[in-house]
Predict the structure of L-threonine 3-dehydrogenase.
Amino acid sequence: MKALVKSRPEPGLWLSESEPVPVIGEDDVLVKVRKTGICGTDVHIYKWDPWAQKTIPVPMVVGHEYAGEIVEVGSHVRTLKVGQRVSGEGHVVGMRSRATRAGKFHLDPETRGIGVNMPGAFAEYVKVPAFNIVPLPDEIDDELGAILDPLGNAVHTALSFDLVGEDVLITGAGPIGIMAGAVARHAGARHVVITDVNPVRLDLAAKVASVTPVNVAEEDLRDVMARLKMKEGFDVGLEMSGAPPAFQQMLDVMLMGGHIAMLGIPAAPYAVDWNRIVFKMLTIKGIYGREMFETWHKMLAMLQSGLDIRPVITHRLKTADFLQGFETMARGECGKIVLDWS
Ligand code: NAD
Ligand code: ZN
C-alpha cells in the first residue's frame, strides 16, 4: 500500500508505494483511509527535531488525524461493521492504571500515540483498536472527520471552564486556537480575543469565527480591553501557543480568580512570575489530548448544532503533494491542511 514513512533518522518523510497492509488483531479494525490532516506533531517528525529523535521509532508510518471506512473487523469486535465511516481517537490506552480502571481513559500514564509510538494513518490502511473508533454521523463528511483530533484538543481545552457570558483570551491563533475561538463563541462567551504575531493566522481567525484578533507585536492587550470596555480582565484564558511571552501576557490581563487551561507545548522550560498567579488566585489546568469519549460526544454534537469550523481548512492536497503541505505548515502560512488518499 501507499504510505508516508519516516524511513530514516533524518529530516524528511518519504512516500512508499510498497508498505505492507497492517494485519489486525482480534480487537482491532482496519480502516481504509480517505482523508488525513497534517498536525504540528507531524511537522516536528518531518523536521526531525530533538523531541522526534527521542520519540519516533524508525522506520514507521506516521500520521494520526484521519477519516475513512472500516474494511475489516477483528473476531472479538461486536459493535462495528464493515462499511461504516469512521474517525478515531489517536491515543491508545492500556487497562492497567488506576485511571483507566476508573474509566478516566485520558489520564492513563501508559498512553501511546498512533503515528507517534505505533504505525499511523498517513497510509491507504490503518489498524486501530476498535475501542478507539468513533463512527461519523452522515452530516460530518470525511474532511471534517479528518480534523476531529485537533478540534477535540480545542473543545477539551475550551470546555474546561464555564464560558457562558465570560470574556475569553486565547493566546495562539494556530488551527487549534482558531477552532477554540469558534467553540467559545458557539458556547456563549461574551468577548473572545485571540492573539498571535502572524497576520495570516489572525486574518484566518477572524474569517472562521466572530473573534477579536490581536497582533501582540503591534498592539497592547490593555488597549484592546479598553476598546471592548472590559474593566478588570479576562475570566478564562486558553493558552494555545506554547510561547512563553504569550503566557506572561495572559497572566497580566487575567481577572482575579480567573481560570487558565494550558494546551500549548513550550519548546523548553521557562520562568514564570508566580506572584501573579498566587495573588490573583488563578486556577491553572493542563490539557492533554481529548477526554475519551466525552470530548468526542461534545464536538460531534456541536458540529450537528451549528458549530462551523470548515473554513479553518485552507489547503486540500493530493497525497503526492505532501511535501508542499509540510513546507506550508512549517512556514505557518495556513490553517489545517487535508491530504486526500482516495
Ligand atoms: P501552531 O504552532 O500552529 O500555533 C501556535 C501559534 O502560536 C502560531 O500561529 C504562532 O504564530 C503563535 N504564537 C507564537 N508566539 C506567540 C505569542 N507571543 N503570542 C501569541 N501567539 C504566538 O499550533 P497548533 O497546532 O494550533 O497547536 C497549538 C499548541 O498546542 C501548540 O503548542 C501545540 O504543540 C500544542 N498541542 C498540544 C496538545 C496537547 O495535547 N496538549 C495537542 C496538540 C497540540
Ligand atoms: Zn494532531
